[in-house]
Automatic annotation (TrEMBL):
Pfam families for this protein: BPD_transp_1
Membrane-related topology note: Multi-pass membrane protein
Every ABC transmembrane type-1 domain range: 78-265
Xref: InterPro entries: Bact_Polyamine_Transport (IPR051789), MetI-like (IPR000515), MetI-like_sf (IPR035906)
Bilayer-spanning residue ranges: 23-46, 82-104, 116-140, 146-169, 190-215, 249-268
Keywords annotated in UniProt: Cell membrane, Membrane, Transmembrane, Transmembrane helix, Transport
CDD domains reported for this sequence: TM_PBP2 (cd06261)
Organism from which the protein derives: Streptomyces lichenis
Protein location: Cell membrane
Family from the record: Belongs to the binding-protein-dependent transport system permease family. CysTW subfamily.
Protein name in the entry: ABC transporter permease
Length: 274
């Protein structure tokens, strides 16, 4: 009769360490692969190129940071993207937050259908939403331009805000709002002083996500922009003849701004938790 010896505690610990090391290595490889295009963009923002083609390293320079707005059309496109992103973030947050609160707090007829509609809007390809909105604007005779881009982006971003706020509602304690009402606070005061501060991280996250999606979007924008040119549209059209270094600089600054906002959000969350 043969017996199988069980691994000792030391052997099991070594195996666990090896598995953990392998997972950490794999994680860092994936992170490096994701950050590689961003690193190349940052690097070539300092490339001392003499022509429109910015694909080979020719030396270090700060010229493109000094002449960041030397291309008027590119500057206008960037301002269009930032302006549209701000408007979309505000409008989509105002419209999506009540939906998320209703889905997280109440049980009502049709709740499942609303859930399905929100997730379907997120899962659907952008080309489907872009084409549908284009058909709607054509049927209604609405000229495409700045306004139609805003409407299209708001329609695209509302589900993200609603789902983010709904997830935040999962940890919401309604008894706190009831206690505020019992202490004499009116509905608006209770919402402003109790409910909104608790939901604020989810609301801010949804707004930032809307802004990022709007600035980044190409497909829906290309269907509904008309003569309005945004930053992604300008970069795509310029790729045929050569992307100027200012594009890399602007991308670097947008990425840096995103890091600063994310870092500030983490610090605020830790301060609230502490």
């Amino acid at each position: 009769m043969t017996t199988t010896a069980t691994p000792s505690r030391t052997v099991r610990r070594r195996r666990a360490v090896r598995r953990g090391s392998g997972l950490r290595l794999w994680t860092w490889l994936v992170i490096g692969w994701l950050l590689l295009p961003i690193a190349v963009m940052i690097l070539f923002g300092f490339n001392d190129t003499s022509g429109k083609v910015n694909f080979t390293w020719q030396g270090f320079t700060l010229t493109w940071y000094e002449h960041l707005f030397a291309i008027p059309n590119l500057t206008d496109a960037l301002l269009n993207s930032l302006g549209i992103g701000l408007v979309v973030a505000v409008v989509a947050t105002l419209l999506g937050t009540p939906i998320g609160m209703a889905l997280g707090r109440y049980r009502f007829r049709g709740r499942g259908s609303v859930d399905l509609l929100l997730f379907a809007a997120i899962a659907a390809p952008e080309i489907a939403l872009g084409a549908a909105l284009l058909s709607l604007f054509i049927i209604l005779g609405v000229p495409r331009g700045y306004g139609t881009v805003v409407v299209a982006h708001v329609a695209f971003c509302i589900p993200y805000v609603a789902i983010t706020v709904r997830a935040r509602m999962a940890g919401y304690d309604p008894t706190l709002e009831e206690a505020a009402r019992d202490l004499g606070a009116g509905p608006w005061t209770a919402f402003r002083l109790v409910t909104l501060p608790m939901l604020l991280p989810g609301v801010v996250s949804g707004a930032l996500l809307c802004f990022a999606l709007s600035v980044d979007d190409y497909v829906i924008t290309s269907f509904n922009a008309g003569r309005t040119v945004t930053f992604p549209l300008w970069v795509y059209s310029a790729a045929r003849t050569g992307v100027p270094p200012q594009v890399n600089v602007m991308g670097t600054l947008i990425f840096a701004a995103g890091l600063l906002v994310a870092g500030a959000n983490v610090l605020l969350a830790r301060r609230r938790a502490g």
